[in-house]
Design goal:
By secondary structure, this protein is of the alpha/beta class. The chain is built from eight helices and 21 strands.
């Protein structure tokens, strides 16, 4: 299928083109501001589906709203009618199309042009009145509060917040692309389209969450960034990193036994770390009442020993780095680990809670 994407170099267009190609739609005609009207006309002759994403939302001259939104859309449908084509078109409109400002009026006129084209030709048109879209490659200091806040926080610049309680509705770029691509393989009902999930949030809340992302590099405590809105927002935040910000140091504590290094802490699912031990060194020799730990030997040879603090029952096992076997500590059993090899021992460790120096739930009892 030959697909035309106008505004292909913009925020939504760039993301969409990559995802189209990933799904096998490689015959793309990409049109942006660098192309002439003749090149656009030529593309319209062969396109089998059109994503009309091009538009104006921050012009120097208010008259450019009509030129870049309404007039461009009218030109596209007029050319298709002249060619006697019924090419399906998807339009990115805006929630402001219901408002009387110049931008909203221009988007409403673009919708009218598409609806007229659909009525006269029978072509399918899909109109998305998008709320605030956020995600990677969105330009800061333009028309996205998320992109601006991400850029400023990443680069230690101040935020300007006039009203922290102001509400915005956000939709993630991957969600937008998923909905858009869905129309290529499915016989959807044409007309105005809905999109979800949409995330309602205040400007102050956005700033607060983004500040917590920045702080996590020092505290090592991460938010729940694995699902839903926080996953999308965190991905957007780190997309503003420069290459020099791709790495950072974490705390490491070294003594004659080896090194203990903390990697990541979570508010609800414990923390991750690793430790090393020189040959012959034993670590541990304590028990817990509630805390659970999981050990994975990454390199070397280890002997794990356990003893029940009430019954004196004992157990031990040897693990090497190529066993890929998790060893758990169990409440009420004192435990230790000894490097029984001739090289350094490296062990990955997860604990189900963040270490609290005031309530460590760790009691010395050597085996």
């Amino acid at each position: 299928m030959k697909i035309l994407v106008t505004g292909a170099s913009g925020f939504i267009g760039k993301n969409l083109c990559f995802q189209l190609e990933e799904q096998g739609f490689i015959d793309l005609i990409k049109i942006d501001r660098s192309n002439s009207i003749e090149e656009l006309n030529e593309a319209l002759e062969s396109a089998e589906f059109i994503y009309h994403l091009a538009g104006i939302n921050r012009p120097q001259n208010e008259d450019d709203f009509k030129l870049g939104n309404a007039d461009l859309t009218s030109h596209i449908v007029s050319k298709l009618e002249e060619l006697n084509r019924t090419t399906p078109i998807l339009l990115t409109s805006s929630i402001q199309a219901e408002q009387s400002n110049a931008y909203g009026v221009s988007k409403a006129l673009a919708e009218d042009a598409l609806n007229s084209y659909a009525e006269q030709s029978g072509a399918k048109v899909y109109i998305y009145r998008l709320p605030n879209v956020f995600g990677k490659w969105c330009r800061p200091n333009y028309n996205s509060v998320v992109a601006t806040f991400c850029y400023n926080i990443v680069n230690d610049l101040p935020l300007t917040i006039n009203d922290p309680s102001a509400e915005v509705n956000l939709v993630y770029i991957d969600t937008v692309c998923e909905h858009f691509i869905h129309h290529l393989n499915n016989d959807e009902v044409a007309g105005k389209q809905s999109i979800k999930p949409i995330y309602p949030i205040t400007v102050g809340e956005i700033a607060s969450v983004l500040e917590s992302f920045k702080a996590s590099k020092v505290s090592l405590i991460t938010e729940n960034v694995g699902t839903d809105f926080l996953r999308a927002l965190y991905s957007t935040y780190i997309s503003h990193y420069s290459p020099e910000q791709f790495s950072y140091t974490v705390p490491a504590y070294t003594d004659p036994r080896g090194t203990f290094c903390e990697l990541l802490k979570t508010k609800e699912a414990g923390q991750f770390s690793f430790f090393t031990a020189h040959p012959g060194i034993t670590r541990g020799g304590h028990y817990h009442h509630t805390k659970n730990e999981k050990f994975l030997v990454i390199k070397g040879q280890a002997k794990f020993k356990f003893r029940h603090i009430a019954t004196d029952e004992s157990y031990e096992l040897n693990i090497t780095g190529d066993d890929y076997r998790v060893v758990e500590t169990v409440p009420g059993w004192t435990h230790d680990v000894t490097n029984i090899g001739e090289s350094e021992l490296i062990v990955m460790l997860w604990a189900n809670e963040i270490f609290d120096r005031e309530k460590p739930d760790t009691f010395a009892k050597p085996l």
